Amino acid sequence: MIPLENFLILSAILFATGLYGVLARRSAILILMSVELMLAAVSINFIAFASYLDGDAFSGLIFALFVITVAAAEVGLALGIVLRLFRERQTAYVDSADSMKW
Amino acid sequence: MTESDAVLLLALFLIPLGTAALLMLVPSRERSLIVGLTAASSLAMFVISLYVFVAYDFNGAQFQGVDAWNYMHNVGLLGEEGIQLKVGIDGIAAAMVLLTGIVILPGTWVSWKIQNRMKDFFILLYILTAGVFGTFVMLDMFMWFLLYETALLPMYLLIAVWGSTRKEYGAMKLMMMLLAGSILIFTAIFALYAEAGLGTFDMVDLYAFDYDEDFQKIYFPMVAVGCGILAAMFPFHSWSPDGHASAPTAVSMLHAGVLMKLGAFGIIRLGFQMMPEGGEFWAPALILVGITAALYGAISALRQDDLKLMTGFSSISHMGYVMLGLGTMNVIGWTGAVLQMFAHGIMTALFFLLIGAMYDQSHNRDIPNFSGMAKQMPIWTVFFVIAGLASLGLPGMSGFVAEVHIFIGTFRAYPVVGGLAVLTAAITATYLLRMFSQVFFGEFNPRWSELKEITYAERAGAAVLAGTILLLGLWPSPWVDRIATTIETTIPGVHL
Amino acid sequence: MEQVWILPAIPFATFLVLGLFNRFIPRRGDGLAVLGMAAVVVLVGVVLADFQNFFVDGIFTPGGEHAYAEEWVDIGQGFFLIEFSTYVDSVTMVMLPVVSFVALMVLVYSIGYMKGEQRYGWYFAALSLFVSAMLLLVISGNLLQLYLAWEGVGLASYLLIGFYWERQAAAEAAKKAFITTRIGDVGLLIGIILLWRVTGSFDIQEIIHAAQEGVFDQTYLTVAMIFLFAGAAGKSAQFPFHVWLPDAMEGPTPVSALIHAATMVVAGVYLVARMLPVYDEVLIARDVVLYTGLLTALMAATMGLVATDIKRVLAFSTVSQLGFMFVALGVGALTAAMFHLFTHAFFKSLLFLGSGSVIHATDEQEVQELGGLRKKMPVTTITFTIGSLALAGLPFLAGFWSKDEILHDLQKHGPMWAYVVLAATAALTAIYTTRVVLLTFFGKPKNQQAYDRAHESPPIMTVPLMILAALAIVAGFVTYTGVGEALGFVGGIGEVVYLPAEGAHRFELDWAFAAGASATAVAGVVIGVAYWWGDAKRAAAARNWAPELHQLFARRYYIDELYQAVINNVVMGASRVVAWFDKKVVNETGVDGATQFIGFLGYRLKFLQTGRIPNYALGMALGVAALAVVAIGTT
User: Fold this and answer.
1) pLDDT per residue over B394-407, tens digit each?
2) How far is residue B270's CA from residue B262's CA, in Å, rounded to a whole number?
3) C355 near C310, Cβ under 8 Å?
4) Structural domain of residue A11, as residue ranges?
5) In Å, what is the CA distance from B447 to each residue of A44, B289, B365, B374, B444?
6) With an 8 Å Cβ cutoff, is A78 touching chain C?
7) Is residue C145 pLDDT above 80, yes or no?
């Protein structure tokens, strides 16, 4: 068996990469892609734990299914907002939406 | 006083609340109806509070007229008793109830001349009164606090809408400082509740509970400062002069007369009765704060040119005496403190009534602008002199009875402070007499030849208050008996 | 004797009726006031008769004099007890006739003097209040009740000094009187409480017994008695509290006669006399009394020498004579002090009423505007002169006997130099009183209009003058055993009024001493005549010879200026500091500062709302991280 830690490290690397993407990227699409990456990483984490530790119970797998569903819904909504933003500001860069400030 | 009288205690705060609700239904233009309703209501409150005071049996149980109605129990962290509407009074509360009943009467009468939005004024005033009465009769901490806030919140609107002289600033300052105090009280109440672990806010049960000493040493000052802010305890007194100066007459009367005593009452109820060891530990601090306030208030009053500011500082000085009395931790000093709460309440209500009466006509409160007023308004002068003499502690009036108890109690505990306290009385005489000779006597200032004597309503109100001053001054035993026996038997740590 | 509380009750009832209803009573109630007073005088006579029964074998045996006690405040079942109690003994028996009789004379006189004045009814009401409080004071059995009456007397004095309140000077004088005595009263109250602390009682007799049994620590008792004396000094206008009495002359003259000559100002003497057995235990305190009285007597006599307003001269004279009484008390001579109080009341009130007669007739108070009035006002002149000679201590007049007794006791019990000083003061007394008589009634009139206005006063004013003059002549004879017995007592005043330590003593005339004292008095009169007869050339020369000294006396030793400077700098300075502190520190820094700080924080923190999504994302990430750390940390 592949050691559990390998999956966890993979998941951690993917999560970190996704986090970096969310915080550092300007383009809205790229941020959404990074969020997807984070969600995938989390799913890997849950599935790994489910298979290695949970035995007969598979709540981790159920969790992963939920994550996928939620991700899909959320991306649909988010892309809609990004499209709207693009139509207003002619750019998909996130820092153009800064009028609700002090 | 029996169990059945608990309904009367309940009525004490339901009547003003009910009147306020009724008034909301009355159209604003029906002035005579408003006058009639409030007259009946204030009279009812007075009669009930008088009955409550007289019926309190000072040889009987500590808390009398006790009864409880459940509000919220067996939910979450609350136990069997949880939060209840529990009423009951002891001797101290009885005296305070009487004070409120006496002050609300002239307070109502003089407010009948308000032209602008009289109905709304009375609604708010009566909500305030309901809160005051409720706080005095409640024996459940949660409800106590609820009604305490009910007494506090209308102040903002009352001052900001119907006030004078920088009313927005005065109202805001007063509210902010009092609410800061409320936060402290709130925290302390929940701490007391949690620490006891009994799942109830019932005060009687919590009095019996023995709190840990360190807990008491931390939370007693929280209660003392929180309630003390309302009682204009030094150094948190600065809302008082500005607040009183900008408030309308009846509000000043009720506020300085009754609400400030609410603060001291809170220190007794929530502070000393709940946490006696904490109280004993912090008593010297109270003495220090008290004597500082007394001297500070008196010396500041010497400087003031605005009559209401002078009276405001005078109130700070007299409340300092109350703190002093409470800090002595002996029965005589405490009796004096409670007597002073009563006596000063009446006296200051009279002061504000008279000042307001004059201000309504002249729109000026500056001492240097007036002279020889005794010629133009003799009845006003006579009442003012009575109030002033009571304030400086002339024997035969209520102020002396209270002050002599406080002085003697303080002397027993700290002779030097006692000497300072007596000296403060001399300083009080100075600023009052200075005001008298400036405002009442001397050459008449013709600028005020248009002024008329005070109205019959004002005269009647002043007579009620002056009469109480003389009654307490000449025949103090009803008050002393009720107050002293309560203190002797129920406040742990306070001994003869 | 048990109903002796009726004595103050009658004038108090008069006060209430007149105060509230004087507009509706015929003649504004002056008759009612006089009637009430007359009733009191009669009742005093009854009390006197009753009192005489308490003498068993020539010794005053107390019994039943403490009969009336009514509980007022009771905490802890007697632990802290304030009651209304009365106590009558020989000291009281001196005060009662003095107060009631002089009050009656003054009331009758006032009907004439105050005729046509505004607030006529209120005048009589306030006077009745005063008499009520004074009577209550002298029959009080406990110190707290005495304090109550003490303040009541002060209140009445305030109302009466400020009677002409349209005049700012009168209002100021009333305020000064009240505040000065109030400061003394601080001492009195402290003294009372200190005594209570040890004995647990306010009752005077209990305190005296406790002191005699040595319950008190010496230092503690000395301090307490000195505080008590501060109150007495305030009320009796002794140094340094004497400043209010000269100014109190702003009030109507009959008020000065009653309050500031015969009754209120002797309240201090009464208090010390009452507590004299306790003072005997702490001789240091008693010495304070002695030397204060001595100093005051001398100072006031010098100030009276140069004063130009008739009433002020008399005021200084009163202060000086009160000093004499305190000197007597200071050597433990109760008899002498009370005797002088007794005679002084009569001749001093006579002098004041006489000056009132002059003022009423001429509208002038300054001696520089008067003169030669004897032709136009004969009765006033004669009675005034009799009063002056009594004050000077001319032989066989009332003042001679009492002053002689004081000097005699001082010489026996006190230091020699004190005796010399007091004797000199007695001579000064004779000088200044002669001066006033000469400048007012003899010589040539200095102001013709004043002289033209002068006329003899109506009988309602002159009859009291004559009665008092008669008393000024004969009152001194009560010192003789024979006279005392004729009046129903066991003997002369020395056998009725005495301190147990003194013992009852028969009066025996010490001829040598009496001759010496008379000589001083006569010498004083002669000097006075020499300097001020005619156009007073010698006096003017003397004034020019030592102008600074004259200024010193005339400006009352600059003490008023000193007090005003202290008040301005210390008191008003303190209030300026406190007001500054309150405004700057508490208000602006504390309260307003706190609100401004919160506002400032808000202003700074708002910059967190950049509106930029990446910033918010970062915030969320950091928050989650923090929560995770906390969650993992606590598990």
Assistant:
1) 888 888 999 999 99
2) 11
3) yes
4) 4-93
5) 91, 43, 14, 14, 9
6) no
7) yes
| Per-residue tokens: C408 | 């005699």
- What 3 state SS string does C367-425 have? HHHCCCCCCCCHHHHHHHHHHHHHHHCCCCCHHHHHHHHHHHHHHHHCCHHHHHHHHHH
Question: Whats the size of chain C, residue-wise?
Answer: 635
pLDDT of residue B465: 94
Chains B and A touch (3+ CB pairs under 8 A): no
Per-residue pLDDT tens digits for C164-192: 888 888 888 898 889 888 888 889 999 99
* Alpha carbons B297 and B421: distance in angstroms, whole number: 12
> C58 pLDDT exceeds 60?
no
Contacts of C610 in chain A (CB under 8 A): 98, 101-102
Judge contact between B226 and B105, C-beta under 8 A. Answer: no
- CB nearest C611 (choices: A24, A26, A100): A100
Residue A19 touches chain C, beta carbons under 8 Å? yes
Is residue A16 in a domain? Answer: yes
Q: How confident is the model at residue A51 (pLDDT cuts 50, 70, 90)?
A: confident
Distance in angstroms (rounded) separating the CA atoms of residues C53 and C46 = 11
Which chain C residue has the Cα nearest residue B372? C166
* Alpha carbons A65 and A67: distance in angstroms, whole number: 5
- Identify the CATH number of the domain in which residue A37 sits: 1.10.287.3510
Cβ atoms of B271 and B223 closer than 8 Å: yes
Share of chain B above pLDDT 70, in %: 98
* Residue type (1 letter), B252: S
Separation CA B76–CA B54 (nearest Å): 41
Residues C525 and C394: beta-carbon distance below 8 Å: yes
Residue C334 in contact with residue C90, Cβ under 8 Å? no
Work out the pLDDT band at C322, boundaries 50, 70, 90.
very high
- Segment A80-94, tens digit of pLDDT: 999 998 998 888 888
User: What is the rounded CA–CA span in Å between residue C235 and residue C180?
Assistant: 8
| Arithmetic mean of pLDDT, B189-215 | 85
Total domains in chain A come to 1
- Tell me the C-alpha to C-alpha distance, in Å, between residue C28 and each of B197, B375, C413: 73, 19, 53
Residue A99 lies in a domain: no
b (16+ CB within 10 A) / e for B390-424: bbbbbbbbbbbbbbbbbbbbbbbbbeebbbbbbbb
Integer angstrom CA distances of residue C618 from A27, C290, C621 = 16, 89, 5
The answer as to whether A102 is a domain residue is no
Whether residue B343 has pLDDT greater than 90: yes
Q: What is the pLDDT of residue C55?
A: 63
Q: Is residue A26 part of a domain?
A: yes
**Tens digit of each residue's pLDDT (9 = 90 or more) over B253-312:** 988 999 999 999 999 988 888 888 888 899 999 999 999 999 999 988 888 888 888 998
- Provide mean pLDDT across the span C604-616: 85
Nearest Cα neighbor of A18 from A32, A8, A4, A5 is A32
Instruction: Write out pLDDT tens, residues B48-76.
Output: 999 989 888 777 667 777 777 777 777 77
Cβ contact C–A (≥3 pairs, < 8 Å) = yes
Q: Using a CB-CB distance cutoff of 8 angstroms, which residues of chain C are in contact with residue A102?
A: 606-607, 609-611
